[in-house]
Design a protein that fits this description.
The structure is a single chain. The protein has a domain of about 80 residues: 3-Layer(aba) Sandwich (Rossmann fold), CATH 3.40.50. It is globular and about 40 Å long. It has five helices and three strands; from the N terminus they run ααβαβαβα. The mean pLDDT is about 85. It has a three-stranded parallel sheet with strand order 1-2-3, sandwiched between helices. The protein is α/β, with parallel strands linked by helices.
């Protein structure tokens, strides 16, 4: 059902001329694999992690699988930085995959934070 909705979303909408289309997929590889099937080729991937070692390890597995499927990994967004979430997941993954951390979103972002982040993307 989700794959059908994604297929409809990508195929039936008149997107016009786009440089980039960002899709926020849930964690896990199944939706990514379905997206590859729909597009006919592996898409570039911007990945999201939180700072914790547990998230780093889960995201690492997904990133490795995406690379094995032929995707370029373009960067990492580290979400929920600060507060009680401790770790260096964004920096660890950036070093391992030789890609940039493109944004760090604080635990409680303000409207000013969102505007600054949007201007960076």
């Amino acid at each position: 059902m989700e794959a059908s909705a994604l297929r409809e979303f990508l195929g039936d909408v008149n997107w016009g001329s786009l440089d980039t289309l960002l899709l926020d997929l849930p964690p896990g590889m199944q939706r990514y694999i379905e997206l590859c099937d729909i597009l006919g080729k592996p898409p570039a991937v911007l990945t999201v992690t939180i700072p914790t070692p547990e998230s780093r390890d889960a995201v690492r597995r997904a990133m490795r699988a995406a690379v094995e499927h032929g995707s370029d990994i373009v960067g990492i967004v580290e979400n929920m930085v600060g507060a009680e979430l401790k770790g260096t997941a964004g920096d660890d993954l950036a070093a391992e995959f030789a890609i940039p951390v493109v944004a760090r979103i604080p635990w409680h972002p303000t409207p000013d934070t969102w505007n600054r982040l949007a201007s960076q993307l």
